[in-house]
């Protein structure tokens, strides 16, 4: 099976060396190695940089698509910036409801309230994370006590 050809490396050898001295990145080093010796295999470069050969292939695809800036940019992980677990109006309503003294007895009750009020089925874990980490609240539920013991 023939190997995919290397994308043309547009930066000069001197440019790459200067950038590598300024910022030590494996991705820059990879380009420098391929520019110095175009006959090198991806496996050899991967072994030299102590990364997997598929990582080298992924870096080369990014370089071919967007150049040096795309190669050196760091991908953002997680959901897209505008994406939320619940819509903004629901979030605000939960905040208001949690500020009230009666509040909720537990996360299940809050989950049920979201479903009844807004028709949204939100997983328990999402409700917990939203309340606990985003809103900074803790829904306290006392431990069950036997009636004879009380």
Automatic annotation (TrEMBL):
Keywords associated with the record: Plasmid
InterPro entries: Homeodomain-like_sf
Protein name: Transposase
Source organism (scientific name): Rhodothermus marinus (strain ATCC 43812 / DSM 4252 / R-10) (Rhodothermus obamensis)
Taxonomy of the source species: Bacteria, Pseudomonadati, Rhodothermota, Rhodothermia, Rhodothermales
């Amino acid at each position: 099976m023939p190997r995919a050809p290397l994308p043309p490396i547009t930066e000069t050898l001197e440019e790459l060396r200067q950038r590598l001295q300024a910022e030590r990145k494996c991705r820059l080093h990879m380009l420098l190695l391929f520019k110095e010796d175009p006959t090198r295999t991806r496996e050899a470069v991967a072994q030299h940089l102590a990364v997997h050969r598929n990582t080298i292939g992924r870096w080369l695809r990014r370089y071919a698509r967007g150049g040096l800036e795309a190669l050196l940019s760091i991908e953002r992980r997680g959901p897209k910036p505008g994406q939320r677990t619940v819509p903004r109006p629901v979030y605000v309503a939960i905040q208001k409801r949690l500020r009230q003294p009666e509040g909720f007895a537990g996360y299940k009750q809050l989950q049920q309230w979201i479903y009844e009020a807004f028709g949204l089925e939100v997983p328990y874990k999402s409700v917990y994370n939203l309340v606990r980490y985003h809103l900074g609240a803790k829904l306290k539920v006392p431990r069950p006590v036997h009636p004879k013991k009380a």
